[in-house]
Amino acid sequence: MTLSTALLWFGLLAATDDGSQRLRQLQAAGDYTGAAAIYREQLAANPESAELHSNLGLMLHLSGDENGALLEFQEALRRNPKLVAPNLFSGIALLRLGRPGEAIPYLDRACLADRASVAPVLARAQAYVALRQYTAANRDYAEVVAREPSNAEGWFGAGITYRSMAEVALKSSPHSPEARKYLESALNALERAASLDPRSERVHLILGESLRDAGKLVDAVEEYKKAIAIRPDSPAVHLGLATTYWKAGETETVLPPLQRALELSPRDPDANGIMADLLVRKGDYAAARKFAEIALSGNPELGHVHLLMGRILLSENRPDLAIAELKAATKSDATGTSYYLLHKAYQQTGDDAAAAAALREFTRLRNSMTEN
Prior knowledge:
Number of helices: 22
Order of helices and strands: HHHHHHHHHHHHHHHHHHHHHH
Distance between the termini: 48 Å
Strand content: under 5%
Number of strands: 0
Largest sheet: none
Structural class: mainly alpha
C-alpha cells in the first residue's frame, strides 16, 4: 500500500453531502477518476470551497495526475493556507514530480499543523532522502518511531538513512568509528522493521546488504533467502545473494543466484561485473570481455570492472588500451593491484619512467595496508 492510499481518509475533507454516497462507493472501488468528476461538478456550484479543491486534488493525485493535483492543492491553500491535507499532499506531489526541495516548505507546514499524525513527518523524511540530506531524514524517522514504535516504515527509513550516513563517513575516513556506529544502528533499525513487517521483500533485501557489510555473511544469506521466498522474480534479491557468496569467495555457490539474476536482468551492471570476475579467475578472458563491457556500459564508475578490463586487454597484448582502463581503476583501488598492472603495461610499451612511478605507488599502498 502506498503512503497516499493509506492516507486517503486522512486527506479527504468534509465538504458537502451531495453525492457523498456515490463518492464513497467510487473511492472504495479505487475509481478516483470517477470521484474526481463528481468533485468537479461540486466545484462548479461552489468554486470557493478550499475543501473541495483539496479533495479533487487528492483524487487526481491517486489517479496519477500529479500536476493537476498540485494545481488543486494550491487552489485550496490560497483559500485556506492552514489546511493540513493540501500542504501534505502538495509536498507528496512535488516529491513524485522530482522536486523534493520545493516539497519541504509544504511538509514543514503540515508537520506544524498536525502534530497528532506521523504522516507529514514520514513524507518529509522521504523528501530529505531524495535530497541526500540523510541526517535530517534520519532525525524525522527517529521522531516517527519514537511516537509510533510499531511503525515499520519508520524503522526501515531509519535503517536506510543510517546506512547512507555510514557511507558518507567512510568516504571521509575508511576506518571511521562513527561509520561503525551508524552501521550498528542500521542493523538494529532494519531488524526491528523485519520483525514488524516480515513479508516485506525490500526490508529483508536491505537487511541482507547491511549484514553483509558488517561481515555477518551467514546471516546475510538467510535474509536474502527470505526475500527470494517472498519475491522469487526479483533480480535484486538474487543479485544480493550472489554478491554475498562472491565476496565470501564461494565461486561455485555464487553461480545459481548469479545466473538467475542475469536471466531476470541481463544488462545489470553489477551482475555482469561479477560474472566477468569469475571468468577472469578461470582464465576465460574472451568470455569475460562481453560481461565486462556490458557492466561498464551500464555503470562506468565500476572500478573493479575497469581493473578486469585492464587484465583482459593485457592478455590480448594490448597494453596501450589496458593503461586507460587501469588508470580508471586506480580511483577506487585501495590494494594497489591496478598500479602493479599499470607497471607491467608501461613496461610493455617501453615507458620505463611511468612503469617505475606505478611500481612506487603500488609499493606505497601495500606498505600502508601492512601498517594499518
